[in-house]
């Protein structure tokens, strides 16, 4: 498994509460949910970037 790097995240309290609720709904930790969402966003960005390059 790849080594993970810890860092401090400043986040709006309302956004954090929503992420905590979403994480609980999907049986993830808050940290796991944030990491999952970031990975999804990066994957989508890669798809969009590939589409732009091919046109």
UniProtKB/TrEMBL annotation:
Start and end residues of each CopG-like ribbon-helix-helix domain: 14-46
GO terms for biological process, alphabetical: regulation of DNA-templated transcription
Transmembrane stretches, start-end: none
Name by which UniProt lists this protein: CopG-like ribbon-helix-helix domain-containing protein
Organism of derivation: Mucilaginibacter mallensis
């Amino acid at each position: 498994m790849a080594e993970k790097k810890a860092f401090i995240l400043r986040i709006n309290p309302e956004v954090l509460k929503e992420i905590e609720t979403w994480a609980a709904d999907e049986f993830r930790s808050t940290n796991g949910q944030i990491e999952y969402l970031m990975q999804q966003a990066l994957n989508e960005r890669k798809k969009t970037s590939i589409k732009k390059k091919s046109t």
